[in-house]
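Inputs:
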Amino acid sequence: MKLKIALVGNPNSGKTTLFNSLTGNNQHIGNWPGVTVEKKEGLVRNNKDITIIDLPGIYSLSPYSLEEVISRDYIFNEKPDVIINIIDGSNLERNLYLTLQLIETGVPVVLAINMMDVIAKNKDVIKSESIAKLLNCPVVEITALKSVGLEELITKSTDLVTKGYKYRPVVWYKEKIENIVSTISEKIKRKVEPEKLRWYSLKIFEKDEKVLEDVKLDPKDKEEIFSLINLYEQEMDDDSESILTTERYNYINRFIEKVYFKNKIKAQSMTHKIDKVLTNKYLALPIFVLIIFLVYYLSISTIGGLLTDYVNDTIFGDNGLPGLVTGWLESINAWPWLIGVIVEGIIGGVGAVLGFLPQMFVLFLLLGILEESGYMARIAFILDRIFRRFGLSGKAFFPMLMSTGCAVPGVMAARTIEEESNRKVMIMTTTFMPCGAKLPIIALIAGALFRGSPIQWLIAPSAYLLGILMIIISSIILKKFKGFAGKASPFIMELPDYHLPSIKGLGFTVYHKLKSFVKKAGTIILVAAIIIWFLSNFSWSFALTSNAEESILASIGKLIDVIFTPLGWGNWKAAVATFTGLVAKENVVSTFGVLYGFAEVGESGAEIWTLLAVDFTALSSYSFLVFNLICAPCFAAMGTIKREMGSRKWTLIAITYQTVLAYVLSLIIYQIGMMFTGVFNIGSVFGILALIVLIYLIFRPNKYLKKIEPKSL
Amino acid sequence: MNTLDKVKIGSDCIIHKVSGERPIKRRLMDMGLIPGTRIHVRKLAPLGDPMEITVKGIELTLRKADAFNIIVEEVAEE
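Outputs:
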């Protein structure tokens, strides 16, 4: 029998661990349509007829947060056969609050009490049978991490369907509430399914906007119902929604002591001790800096960096795979263009991307440790004050840091940010940080146009500063547009107890992150690399050409270079170099090399410094640098943006925004810079206009932000 | 009566009422901040905001601006 089971639970309840233990490698990971929230589906390991859908971690089924609305919509539109509600056994009270709401949906619920090993160790007592009787749903004790109790969980879930499930309300509210609810039920009973009647009636009592939209109440009925509710609200001096929330918690409070005995928890006093140091008033920030430094040092400078260099230079270097493949292809007399497309196009293009795998592996591993151990939540706690100023979350730090290595893990790291609009902003802007592959461009410009200049040493730091500044400015600008206007939501977060991360859990996270990356490299990046290779190696007569100037790409460059004239570098070589930078940013340097007639140039392109200095001025070269730092990132990063955004539209918006911002910035820098040298023409007017527009966008009032006025009591 | 953001660090209080706009109020209450609940105010973040509170054995962090919505009665230390 085919079954669809929805997995629901609080964040930190062990939901992901349970999902992984149940499904193993039979997972499909994507996004919920159009949003940045991850959607995971999987088949149960030894019963492929059962599909498990991992819904986002939530505390409630309110209509206010994206994650909660996704869960609600899924439960009502996709109609899962069973809901498995996983709850943390060491925090029964708050977890059961969601349970009560899930039961009210009318979908059969199986309660999985997790972390029974911890419960046993602390000598806490949970009377599962009493809970089962009270809530009218099967209760299974499990330890997701050790895969204990999972078989029983699946059996009980299937039993619910085969043996039939009869919904009955478990929470009866105060008589006055029930009276109103039954009036509502009477009015809507023909509009909704019988087992959903109570849910809809309760939601209408709460004046839930989403439900009121769904159930189109007769205006006369609505007026009658609302006047009843309003009267009751006046009597209670509170709104109906809060009254029900309070009632649910009160219901739990009434029975919790009979079914749950909690000893003083060791883990918690341990957590308090650790926090005395890690979130200490004076130590917190220095320790944070130290940890960041370690993450950076291990992943980008040392282990990850070395491994990446090894892969790039040895495996994908001239004497590595490309050499071997060339030799083999030549030995079988393959066509030269085929050798070219395979070695330079495919191996070169995909290799450039795969080279970052080791670095990403180390980064994700360390990030996973920080997340699972509970430190990540503390980072939000420590840094919130700083980042809030710019409308960002404390966790925005990580995407920025990762992006200095590679934008791909940087964009992925945005996943840890709690709120959708903040997540979107970070996905769109984190690529502004100069990644490892942009460093050669910086070295090229600093070497070619600023050599010997007193500000030569400033070029590299200015690139990092520009990245940070642009992220902050973008956050301010974007937050004033409708698509980013987050709903007024408070910053309230759990600080979970510290615990040692499990190797199994970490392995899973890292494996799946890398898998999706490699998949991307094998598809979109592969195609893009081949196309760019053909364009740059074939002439319009479709003959292989070794003269770069005859290539299709060159003629495209000559056609479009006028676009960059206002930026000061309207020459086709620069246009082509920018274009090939889309495959991998380090291509910018090697393309210049080829276009200036060198077969091979060093990493910073020292061979072409003199030639480049002829085509550029210091100002136009800096404008070129800025454009290449900020504009659309490489295909790998664009692919990652698409995956994280989960929407074609938002991917397009992101890439357009990046490119337009890059253009505007370069325009301002070049044109205003030219004015200082005494040149004033139509270009200067556009430069000034662009600057005014930018300043306006930063400082215009935000009409989507409601100011909270302090009221006196 | 006081608002939670003004409660002395290290002291306890009991929630009297939660106010604020619907989404904010609902979220705070969903997290277990219900009238009658006892709160221990543990500490402030190193930069003075947000604050860390303990509710029913769970550590929560929230901004002072949001804590302003929670009206509490301070209780004497036991």
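Remarks. Chain A touches chain B through 50 residues (CB under 8 Å). The CA atoms of residues 184 and 225 of chain A lie 7 Å apart.
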